[in-house]
Specification:
Elements (H helix, E strand, L loop, with lengths): L3 E7 L4 E4 L6 E4 L45 E7 L27 E6 L2 E6 L4 H13 L7 E7 L2 E7 L4 E2 H4 L5 H19 L7 E2 L27 H12 L14 H14 L6 E4 L8 E3 L5 E3 L6 E4 L2 H7 L8 H8 L4 H15 L11 E6 L2 E7 L2 H5 L2 E9 L13 E7 L6 E8 L7 E9 L5 E12 L1 H15 L13 H14 L7 H7 L5 H10 L4 E3 L32 H9 L11
Antiparallel strand pairs: 1-4, 2-3, 4-7, 5-6, 6-8, 7-8, 9-12, 10-14, 11-14, 12-13, 15-16, 17-18, 17-21, 18-19, 19-20, 21-22
Helix pairs in contact: 6-8, 10-11, 11-12
Length: about 600
Amino acid sequence: MIETVTTTFHLPPYLYSINNLVCTLHFIRLRNPRSSTIRGTTHSRLSNMDSATTSTTRQPSSKVQSTTENSQPDYQFSYSSILGKPPYVLDPADLPDCYNPFPSKPYGIRAPDENTLVKYGKFVKLQEAEAMDFVSKHTTIACPKVIGAYMLDDVGYIVMSWEEAFPLSAIWGKASETEKEKVIDQLRDYVLQMRNIKGDYVGGFGRMPCVADEFNWDYHDHNRKYGPYDNEAGFNEGLISALDRISPWPRNEDPESPGYNLEFTISELVRSLKNHEIVFTHGDLHAANILVKNDFTVVIIDWATAGFYPEYWEFYKATWRDPFQPSFIRQIAKFIPAFWIEANIMEQIHRRISELPCAFILDHRCCLNLYLDRILFLSWKDHENLTKAYTVSVLLYGRTLLEQDDDLPCHVGIAIHEDVNEPNTCRLHHARCPNQIRFIYEFRPEQPYCTDPILRGRCELRSGLSRAEADRADSLLAKYGNEQEHLPFYGAGNCQNWLAGAVAMLEEAGLAGQQDGQYWTESIGKGRETMEDGWKKRGRCWVDNPKSLQAAPENVDARWRDKEERNVGKLDNGVDFGKRVEALEGLFNKRPTTDD
């Protein structure tokens, strides 16, 4: 159980080093935190101790008052008695301007220097830091080392070590079979070490309440806690209780209705789960939380949901998310013992949480499959279209290697992709000029998101789109692109001209932000860095492309290929050039004259 030592003090814009219970404070500053570029590895660093030291000795019930004119509010400060007092406390005002290596995470992640990571937010709890500390001391699992953890008011902060690594989804497609086996072997060993740690309760780490999506959708009481429970039977009843409270609509009490029967069936399925061992569990072991270093050492992050749960829980929580590629779900069974029946029963609960009220009624859209006298799963065929979100983004490409710091005009395109940090594919709309005469519009419905020419990142125009809105954006872009009047001539315009007009069109249709068309019009002819920096200064979302997928063996020049896998950029052989350009264009059968 987390025990906290609480005191109240004024927090000026400094880092604090807390040396004793009565809070002797040593002031150290972040060195120019707002100089972070968010590009590459140039981040602000934690400075050394200032030579000047200010000490204030106080009683626990009193406050340290500031004498500065621009005083900041008091903060309630607490920390875990298991981890002890943190070596310093970060000024919250400095963190937003530090480098963010994981922009898709729902909480704050910042790197004040290349060796330190800070995770913070209202949903960040001290028990996550305690779990990481436990893992680092009792297993050989590679995970971040906890430097310090504390609460300021109701916001949690975990300061941890950091080494550069990449999400498993980013390296899997490029890894050799030997390298893949090395990753799987490490994961199998990690999971085995966790499962060898047995529990005498079910719940979050440190005998805390359960931490999982299944318990966090309470419309009636957001502060309600579930668990910890003495055994699996109590855990099952907790799940059923959580199910009863997730919907703002009244529960169907008519025993003759299909909806009532569905809820009854799910409850009985959950109660049928018995006789499982209670083991230490990560609870969110999907590809985004599995990082791989350059030497293929595997690092596990995000221990927020760690605790002691039935032995099937790890497999279920690792498989319910859409894998970054369909075949990877079979890889999961190689390093986590498979519990297919239990996992499919538990999917009932997750679908119950995520689907609309009308989906609770069994009709022709639903299908039940029976296997071994147990229901394996209930799948709503429209589930994917209703639950996935999409984003419209401007993609910025590069012509040179990442190490070469340039700000040259770059190729741009508009992509529609899943609303995730690293989508596998996108629907790409762009204008390109294969013949150095006139630009063509090209639509790539399944373009790999990370490909040559080097993708540097994306500027998100609008996120959270439904499938219908994403399809509408596709249709509008196709209509706009196939109108010849929108296609510039070589030398009198470029891909950026086309993009600016397309974004303005999307803005008018409500599929881009206000003034986005004007911004991209003003960006015509500017370099990639200028576009990126300007977008971020507007407070808009920029997402870097993983560096492992940006690297290329040499400078590249628009390596877009045709169906025969031949370059369609600069061609040495001019014999078939005209025919191939004509086939690519599809818009006109003759080249324009000077009168055009």
